[in-house]
Amino acid sequence: MQSPRPSKRAPDEMRPVALERGVAKHAEGSCLVKFGDTHVLCTASLEEKVPPWLRGGGRGWVTAEYGMLPRATHERTRREASAGKQSGRTQEIQRLIGRSLRAVVDLEALGERQISIDCDVIQADGGTRTASITGAWVALHDCIEWMKGRNMLTRPVLVDHIAAISVGISHGVPVLDLDYAEDSKAETDANFVITGSGGIVEVQGTAEGKPFSRDEFLSLLDLAEAGVKRLVELQKMAIL
Amino acid sequence: MQSPRPSKRAPDEMRPVALERGVAKHAEGSCLVKFGDTHVLCTASLEEKVPPWLRGGGRGWVTAEYGMLPRATHERTRREASAGKQSGRTQEIQRLIGRSLRAVVDLEALGERQISIDCDVIQADGGTRTASITGAWVALHDCIEWMKGRNMLTRPVLVDHIAAISVGISHGVPVLDLDYAEDSKAETDANFVITGSGGIVEVQGTAEGKPFSRDEFLSLLDLAEAGVKRLVELQKMAIL
Amino acid sequence: MQSPRPSKRAPDEMRPVALERGVAKHAEGSCLVKFGDTHVLCTASLEEKVPPWLRGGGRGWVTAEYGMLPRATHERTRREASAGKQSGRTQEIQRLIGRSLRAVVDLEALGERQISIDCDVIQADGGTRTASITGAWVALHDCIEWMKGRNMLTRPVLVDHIAAISVGISHGVPVLDLDYAEDSKAETDANFVITGSGGIVEVQGTAEGKPFSRDEFLSLLDLAEAGVKRLVELQKMAIL
Amino acid sequence: MQSPRPSKRAPDEMRPVALERGVAKHAEGSCLVKFGDTHVLCTASLEEKVPPWLRGGGRGWVTAEYGMLPRATHERTRREASAGKQSGRTQEIQRLIGRSLRAVVDLEALGERQISIDCDVIQADGGTRTASITGAWVALHDCIEWMKGRNMLTRPVLVDHIAAISVGISHGVPVLDLDYAEDSKAETDANFVITGSGGIVEVQGTAEGKPFSRDEFLSLLDLAEAGVKRLVELQKMAIL
Amino acid sequence: MQSPRPSKRAPDEMRPVALERGVAKHAEGSCLVKFGDTHVLCTASLEEKVPPWLRGGGRGWVTAEYGMLPRATHERTRREASAGKQSGRTQEIQRLIGRSLRAVVDLEALGERQISIDCDVIQADGGTRTASITGAWVALHDCIEWMKGRNMLTRPVLVDHIAAISVGISHGVPVLDLDYAEDSKAETDANFVITGSGGIVEVQGTAEGKPFSRDEFLSLLDLAEAGVKRLVELQKMAIL
Amino acid sequence: MQSPRPSKRAPDEMRPVALERGVAKHAEGSCLVKFGDTHVLCTASLEEKVPPWLRGGGRGWVTAEYGMLPRATHERTRREASAGKQSGRTQEIQRLIGRSLRAVVDLEALGERQISIDCDVIQADGGTRTASITGAWVALHDCIEWMKGRNMLTRPVLVDHIAAISVGISHGVPVLDLDYAEDSKAETDANFVITGSGGIVEVQGTAEGKPFSRDEFLSLLDLAEAGVKRLVELQKMAIL
Lengths: 240, 240, 240, 240, 240, 240
Prior knowledge:
6 copies of one chain form a homohexamer. The first copy, chain A, is an alpha+beta fold. The first copy, chain A, has a single domain, classed as GHMP Kinase, N-terminal domain (Ribosomal Protein S5, domain 2, 2-Layer Sandwich). Chain A is built from 6 helices and 9 strands; from the N terminus they run ββββαααβαββαββα. Chain A has helices at residues 80-83, 88-102, 107-110, 128-149, 180-183, 214-238, and strands at 17-21, 29-35, 38-47, 61-68, 114-123, 162-170, 173-176, 188-195, 200-207. In chain A, a hairpin with a 4-residue loop joins strand 8 (188-195) and strand 9 (200-207). The model of chain A has no long low-confidence stretch (mean pLDDT 95). Chains in contact: A-B, A-E, B-C, C-D, D-F, E-F. Strand 9 of chain E pairs antiparallel with strand 9 (200-207) of chain F, so a sheet runs across the interface. Chains A, B, C, D, E, F: Homohexameric ring arranged as a trimer of dimers. Chains A, B, C, D, E, F: InterPro entries: ExoRNase_PH_dom1, ExoRNase_PH_dom2, ExoRNase_PH_dom2_sf, PNPase/RNase_PH_dom_sf, Ribosomal_Su5_D2-typ_SF, RNase_PH, RNase_PH_bac-type, RNase_PH_CS. Chains A, B, C, D, E, F: Its EC number is 2.7.7.56. Chains A, B, C, D, E, F: This is Ribonuclease PH.
């Protein structure tokens, strides 16, 4: 039977994933992540100061910003710097990336420092937030290795892997890792952020068309767990 | 055994909920919703025009804005109009309210008109987004009744109820409808938006502390389904 | 003879006024003030810091912010937080409220602290600035009582009452406390802010149509003095 | 007896006033107005379009903008263009100038056109808003003469003179036309905008220190009426 | 003799230059340009509309925007979208890129359409504006080829090549194509934009330290002319 | 032969230049500069603090801001304070003025203080940036004299004169000091900033129409050098 997916992938088949490290000359850690035609450049920047509300507490912080080049998309979108503000979508995504990464960081072990993760979408084809989280973990990992190499840390900072994947129901079938063509028509669309040890950190599910049932939701969770497991394996290979 | 909750409620016990209709003299529909000490004024405003990207297509739109009075919270927060922009949190919430309501509206039946829902938090004690969605449905319902009374509609616009509730894991126990004291310390915090017929429209779950498991997530879903069922009953009584 | 006023009130008759205290759970002082269908929620928030230009001088400050819910008015108005700035009218009103309150506060007795008054119009039917000042005084009073109850003050801070009322010339007749229908058509429109002991603190008079004479202005002042006298009596009853 | 005023002027003595016409090469009307060391450049710009809410109605509009060069004041103030917004004070003043001028303009006779008045303070020494209104009338007059010279008007547009002056109570004495040194210490400060035929168009009085009485207010009005009478004479001489 | 340059390059030696076409899946034209470690992604986006001031005139427009990823630089710089505005430097550069490209485009032959060039610096090591112009020409070329392939054009649009290079005086020696280490210490720094036929389109020279002489300026021009000649050869090879 | 210039000036003839000192009562230094009908008010304001990145280093700073009154131009332009931001052109010009002045200031001799130069165009007829630089030098000079008079300086701060002039190619002829009518039609337009001792500090040349050659550029430089020489003489006379 032929796949009902525009990409002809099997329902549980992800796009080819690549995690290329060390792509940014200046950053303490960096990773160019590709989920098929979705390409995101993730950098980790170490700063020796924390936000005002953390000062003097001995704890560090991990934050994230997200952006998209104007012509990363099919139609050119307006440059946010020129529009004078970040859209609600951008803010929602960068808050999600930051929360996801902090779930696997021991902020006390980091000490009073901030790591800023920048995720910039060079080319978009669906799943930019999940690719961002997956690649950001690698950039964060390399930034922490950079610190270890300078004896800046006394105990482990990164306590687990974290990765994310999108799932959805398309033509009634639960599918893994939606590309743009599929995402824009799916009845339901969800993103899962899951740790290397299988704990769920974030779930965001939205019925774009008709509401979904508990059973449908569980089949999406099954797909996502398998997908993240694979992504974590790829992260492990990437940092070897 | 005594309840572990700060409010002494049973794990599956919601706060007292009130839905007061017709509280805004000028609006086509309005509802003051109270989930305990969380009070949100929801108004529905009918406008005979749609956003540019919908013009001429015969379909209508439902959108939402969310705000909080500066002293709705324990500490005064800065007025967003004075700060010159809406926070990422505000934008995230108002996008959620709009999506949730649109899930139960037949936009073609509405015709080329926009209904703007304003949810303004008069007093906050946790769960402002879930109270907003639940009250907004009542305001939206009354706006549509107002239109029916003027023969502006030829077929049903509102196809189902929709309501939302927060759930969380607090001291290891799944609990329903978190207030601020509980929410700020919960290990996991999730919001479910569910229709009157039980379909899931939005799921947002976040592990604030340690990641959660599939089983924990399912017990949260159980609580939420029961909670929304109760909220929908209250909506039905309110619009009698 | 029948009244020429849309509301059928006598020329020197105010709308029913209500001053409800303690309506905001978190605020140090609060008052929901109603001048007929104009409803304003006033809160007083105590902060243990002053603006930069007052630091270290031992004196305190009282400031005010004003806002209006989008559907407080007959037609929905754009949310200022979404527009990205406060209108000139909003800034003019909040500066007036702040100046008026400071006229009856001993800022040295307050000590190096700031009280922020928020006046949020829940429903508008003309006279929102005068209702705001009148209700704000009650919220301020309760905030100062709250401080007294905690032994934070060593001498009186609030040295007098202050209240405000609008007056105007409508169809050639001087009238008191204009509602929206009257205000939008009045030839002249003035606001007076007057203390409990009868001193004038602010006068703002504008000829919307033809200019007014000295005698007309004096008859407006007469009306306003009587109106504020009544408002101060109501404030006294409210704080009993 | 010596004058108690810092400037040694008599209580009812204005500063030297100059109204220089035609100072801006490009503008349809212009006037450099000086009230002593307060210098304001007023220009009138004719545009063949009106604001959206007036389109198609056949009526015109007169609007005003106000600005101050950064070093017009004793200490340099931040450039509003650089700060990214106009202050509340700026907006309040430009709204006042616009309202005042419109009080003596027949907007229907103007036709569907807008005259924009720009009042830019080159040097400030108190009374910038009253000098602006007084000089703006001359610029407006010349713009209308320019239109007459091109047969653009069929009936009179400017129906009266308008001018403005500040008054105050300083060391208990009512005084006319306060300069900065006096204004910053006056107990009461008021601005009157009055027409050539003596009608009051705007009154703004503020007690900076203790509240003022009805009698004090009347003595301020006396001073202002005499002052405006003199300013109108100077306007008449200027446009000869 | 050893080169005095940090990079050990000869004074008239450019960094390795690469021009990679077709790097952006969605854009009508694109080029990843590298001048050594300076990498800029240039895309050309065709839009079937022109700015308001050109509408109806039959002429087209070419415009440019410039941005830099936050960690393109040695220290992370603040994201302009988050800061809420583009810096003066950014605006200066994007105006320069737009002017330079328009110098070799026949805007009437383009027809009433706009081509937007986005130059986004992925990695910065000096010379980002000159690399941007050089790469933007290639993206623009490919966009115009794309149009030709769809029979959208009836006569040549691109009338010449254009490229740009930086030159400077470093330790008293005129040098070509400064990298960051050299640029930040050069006494004089200039950018030349020159066409394929050798005409000068833009000159920008700045003495960072001591002023420069006419002779020094001429030796810089010599270097730049040779550099641009080489860049134009590379453009020709790239588009074969 | 008659001059081809709209103004009938000879190709190497400047407009009448005036440099009037001490025109701003409050500023430490000021100059009203006129290049024909282009009038710019330049003020120098001394502040006893430096930008954050210079604090504690013992060096001072000279910065500049540029503005234009809305009706300085033939058509009224929108007020930047009302638009909410400075245009790219404004920022480009004020950065140029600041850089030019700093080229002749010994920032260490200035000590840890900032001099802010404000250049406000009262009337525009081409060449506002060159007039600004030329007049700003006089304002800066007087500010430094003011400091000397108060024994605030121990060694010379101003090390040379600096002035600027525009040149261009109009109808094929190189011309000096373009006015608006000429500037808007010139094929090439360049600005030179040159010191009293003849060193070049800034060159900005743009081909508006066809590119220019090296020889054309050199003839422009010749004109500019003669022009600046004359401007420096006028500065010397002005400060006698």
